[in-house]
Amino acid sequence: MQHNLQTTQAIERYRATVAQSKKRLLKTVDNCYDPLKDEIVKIVCEEFDVRWEKVISKTRKQEVVSARHAYCYLCRMFLPGRSLKVIAADIQRDDHTTVVHAVQSVKDYLDCNDPAIVPPLIRAIKQIAQKLPSHLDAIEAII
């Protein structure tokens, strides 16, 4: 009986810790609202022809993964103050390393001119550039 009680208590402590972590993460995300983020979401969904619900889902379909990676890359490029953890939370992921992998994947795509992602990504970058003239120099270096 004692063992079951200890196990139950340990599970309750774990659940409380998880709930506390989620609250802290949501608070972080709420404090990091940026209207440009909404613009990036809109542009990525248009250029890759996917709904945002699909982008934040767990699916591994190539067109959805490409859009998700592009979102991460564009956030890192245009929202430098947005942390990896917050970008991961935007796409409903727990770990910042997902964003690191996504950004590196897009850089690799751009280096090898992958036709599946480069044209829509370039169009998305140009659309955002029109909204942010201050980033034109950095964008021209990429394109």
Q: Beta-strand percentage?
A: under 5%
In CATH terms, what is the architecture of the largest domain?
A: Orthogonal Bundle
Q: Estimate the mean pLDDT confidence.
A: 79
Order of helices and strands: HHHHHHHH
The CATH topology annotation of the largest domain reads as: Chromosomal Replication Initiator Protein Dnaa, Chain: A
Any idea what the radius of gyration is?
A: 19 Å
Distance between the termini: 66 Å
Helicity, in percent?
over 70%
Q: Would you identify the CATH H-level superfamily of the largest domain?
A: DnaA protein, C-terminal DNA-binding domain
What is the makeup of the main sheet? none
What is the tally of beta strands?
0
Describe this structure in words.
The chain is mainly α. It has two domains: 1-31; 34-142, Orthogonal Bundle (Chromosomal Replication Initiator Protein Dnaa, Chain: A), CATH 1.10.1750.10. It is built from eight helices and no strands. It is elongated and about 60 Å long. The N and C termini lie far apart (66 Å). 20% of the residues are buried.
Features:
8 helices; 2 domains; 143 residues; Chromosomal Replication Initiator Protein Dnaa, Chain: A; 76% helix; mainly alpha; single chain
Task: Provide a brief overview of the structure.
By secondary structure, the protein is mostly helical. Helices cover 76% and strands 0% of the residues.
List the helices and strands and how they pair.
Blueprint: H1 2-31, H2 35-48, H3 52-55, H4 62-78, H5 84-90, H6 97-112, H7 118-131, H8 136-142
Helix pairs in contact: 1-5, 2-4, 2-7, 4-6, 5-6
